[in-house]
Design a protein that fits this description.
5-stranded mixed β-sheet; transmembrane helix; 14 strands; Ferric Hydroxamate Uptake Protein, Chain A, domain 1; about 300 residues
């Protein structure tokens, strides 16, 4: 009788463990079914009708994901999705993006290719483009020193430039000029701006002069809308702002569809400075404690 409680407890524990095992097995089975269903849907949307598509599907089964594509036909086929854009167009010549060249492997018609071969391609003879990236955070993902794949399928005859194709190749042209053709924004408080200007971080669009005032980088001056406290001003007016009086500085690179266009393009960048004017005065109640500031107050 003394052993019955322990015996009952051990039986209960065994049932709990068995239940947990069954739950885990069920979850894996469900996940397997979901994975198979997603794979079937993907193959239905992208049938392996050429060597490039076959390679895309094979890579997607191995923890790679397609994040940028130009797909022939199919209403559900996306034009593009996200960065990084590892292949660009300089004029009408293809190239691998400088910042991703050493991290990218190129395939043309399902075969490994060189950048020299890529440069010989003409957009009008390019049928489909896929840019894939290795999943970095999957539990079973292996490290790959070249996590980008660019796969291109060509055509033996010129392909008409539809609106979809034209916009895609325009994106690649814009990507040759910008690391963020879809647009990007940044925000800096005073201390963050001190650090950014100390290290010449051009995402801030401004640099510091010797007397600790701000100045728009020359390379951005002709292509930036500047607002100070919500008022549109000239680029040279930025020099009236002392770094101490910056409450918040915002920068924005607009999407390429706004500035990379022939008809009424917008400025590529926007700089918006919010100030706290009292900070610009010598005041013992306000000190700047920053290793990136060498002003006298």
């Amino acid at each position: 009788m003394m052993n019955r409680p322990d015996s009952g407890r051990s039986v209960w524990i065994r049932y709990v463990m068995l239940g947990l095992v069954l739950c885990v097995a069920t979850l894996f089975a469900c996940r397997h079914k979901v994975d198979n269903r997603e794979r079937d849907v993907r193959r239905a949307l992208l049938p392996a009708t050429n060597p490039t598509r076959a390679m895309v599907l094979e890579l997607e089964d191995k923890n790679w994901f397609c994040h940028l594509s130009l797909v022939k036909n199919g209403a559900n086929a996306p034009l593009w999705k996200s960065e990084p854009i590892a292949v660009v167009l300089r004029g009408n010549q293809f190239a691998l993006a400088d910042e991703y060249r050493n991290e990218t492997i190129l395939y043309i018609n399902g075969k490994a290719a060189s950048e020299t071969q890529l440069q010989k391609l003409s957009p009008e003879f390019v049928d489909e483009v896929f840019v894939l990236r290795k999943w970095e955070y999957s539990s079973d993902a292996e490290y790959d020193p070249k996590p980008n794949r660019v796969l291109i399928q060509t055509s033996s005859h010129p392909i008409q430039f539809t609106q979809k194709r034209s916009r895609f190749f325009t994106l690649l042209q814009a990507a040759a000029l910008s690391k963020h053709p879809f647009g990007e924004t940044y925000s800096f408080n005073m201390n963050q701006l001190l650090e950014a200007t100390f290290f010449h971080n051009k995402n801030a669009l401004v640099e510091r002069t010797k007397n600790q005032h701000l100045k728009l980088y020359d390379e951005f001056a002709d292509n930036t809308d500047v607002l100070i406290n919500g008022i549109l001003v000239k680029p040279e007016d930025v020099t009236s702002v002392h770094v101490r009086e910056v409450a918040r500085l915002y920068t924005r690179e607009r999407p390429f569809t706004d500035w990379f266009r022939a008809d009424q393009p917008s400025s590529r960048f926007e700089l918006n400075i919010q100030t706290a004017p009292s900070r610009a005065k010598r005041d013992s109640s306000y000190y700047v404690f920053s290793p990136f500031y060498s002003g006298d107050f």
